[in-house]
Amino acid sequence: MPHYMLRWSFKDTTIKALTENPQDREQAARQVIESFGGRLLCYYLSLGEHDGFCVAEFPDTTSVAAASMRVTGSGAFSRFETVALLTMAEARQAMQKVKDTGTGNYSPPGERMPGN
After folding, report:
1. I need a surface site. Which of 6, 12, 92, 107 has the fewest CB within 10 A?
2. Domains in the chain: how many in total?
3. pLDDT in tens, 17-33
4. Model-level pTM?
5. CATH number at residue 90
6. What is the distance between the alpha carbons of residues 34 and 36, in angstroms, rounded to a whole number?
7. Number of Cβ within a 10 Å radius of residue 62
8. Is 113 within a domain?
9. Residue at 18 is within a domain
10. Among the residues of the chain, which ranges form H helices?
């Protein structure tokens, strides 16, 4: 199944609620991910730009999008992002596809496009 990283920043009201009533949110994440056919692989709170992230498998993009919509609809987050991840095997397949395709028809900005 495809892998995705979900990362978030809590609203200040969510942080206030968590500090007034400390709780483990991993199980809640696991439940929502599993309800859309996914599987939680890891869950962390973090310091820095985001308050937390998890890595999960989902059967398809529609499923991860639906799970993300469900969670963001809760209003608990000021920011929520879904990032598609590639395993090294998938990345290698992509690299091979680039090699097999050759140079293609892409021209960087400022250069004349082939056939023009």
Report:
1. 12
2. 1
3. 999 999 999 999 999 99
4. 0.84
5. 3.30.70.920
6. 5
7. 11
8. no
9. yes
10. 12-20, 26-35, 61-72, 88-101
